[in-house]
């Protein structure tokens, strides 16, 4: 095919009778002049384009012919560094693990897995959202009167001492947090004589926010670009 060749295909109509696919041409036709549903091939830079709305905005859907220029790292997803060149993105893939070396922003987030008890079904759960990048640590403990929970070593540099603790007593007695630091916290039993040692059993969850990953909660898109 050369710059003077064009191919006209029989229209494929949608439910409303409007053509979905009209023609494929390889001439020097201006792609901005194409109508809805037309495809255009530029033999100079080997791009295949498709016009998919009433405003003829060029949308590249495939690359054919000669390979684009550029180089990259094996296992890393490529991105366009210019209109004709490829390079590394911040996304890499290894086996079934996808790693992003940066932030992920989306209008919604969820996981989608095969249903654990219904063959042929799938299960989707959305992610908990809030005005911070939250972290939590939970568990179960038992002891006498005053029980100190040591937090993981990574907790202090990620969160400091700005966190909340929620306790569920596993007995007919009241508990409270008698001390809290960036490294641990202590759970004590209410209304008991100290010389009368009483066992306590409880589960807990400590919830905080990452101090090294702040979120710009709101921004004016008319005055600044998205963070």
Structure overview:
The chain has one helix and 17 strands. The longest helix is centred in the C-terminal third of the chain and has 5 residues, at 155-159. The protein is mostly beta strands. It has a five-stranded mixed sheet with strand order 1-2-3-4-5, with no helix packed on it. Strands 6, 7, 8 and 9 form a four-stranded mixed sheet that branches. The chain has a three-stranded antiparallel sheet with strand order 12-17-14, with no helix packed on it.
| Helical percentage | under 10%
Outline: elongated
Order of helices and strands: EEEEEEEEEEEEEHEEEE
Q: Which sheet architecture does the biggest sheet show?
A: 5 strands, mixed
Q: Which whole number gives the mean pLDDT?
A: 76
- State the separation between the terminal residues, measured CA to CA: 46 Å
> What percentage of the residues does DSSP assign to strands (E)?
over 45%
Poorly predicted runs of 5 or more residues:
1-14, 19-29, 43-65
Structural class category:
mainly beta
Task: Note the quaternary state here.
Answer: single chain
Biggest sheet strand order reads 1-2-3-4-5
Number of helices: 1
Radius of gyration: 30 Å
- Number of DSSP-assigned strands: 17
């Amino acid at each position: 095919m050369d710059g003077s060749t064009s191919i006209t295909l029989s229209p494929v109509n949608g439910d409303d009778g409007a053509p979905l696919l009209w023609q494929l041409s390889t001439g020097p036709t201006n792609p901005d002049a194409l109508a809805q549903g037309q495809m255009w091939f530029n033999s100079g830079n080997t791009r295949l384009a498709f016009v998919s709305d009433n405003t003829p905005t060029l949308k590249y859907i495939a690359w054919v012919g000669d390979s684009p220029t550029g180089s990259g790292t094996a296992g890393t997803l490529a991105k366009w560094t210019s209109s004709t060149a490829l390079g590394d993105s911040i996304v890499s893939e290894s086996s079934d693990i996808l790693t992003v070396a940066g932030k992920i922003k989306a209008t919604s987030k969820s996981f989608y897995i095969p249903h654990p008890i219904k063959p042929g079904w799938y299960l989707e759960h959305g992610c908990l959202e809030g005005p911070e990048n939250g972290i939590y640590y939970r568990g179960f403990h038992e002891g006498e009167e005053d029980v100190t929970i040591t937090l993981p070593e990574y907790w202090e540099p990620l969160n400091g001492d700005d966190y909340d603790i929620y306790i569920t007593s596993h007995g007919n007695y009241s508990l409270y947090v008698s001390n809290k630091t960036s490294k641990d916290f202590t759970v004590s039993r209410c209304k008991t004589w100290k010389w009368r040692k009483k066992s306590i059993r409880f589960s807990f969850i400590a919830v905080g926010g990452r101090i090294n990953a702040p979120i710009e909660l709101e921004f004016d898109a008319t005055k600044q670009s998205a963070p």
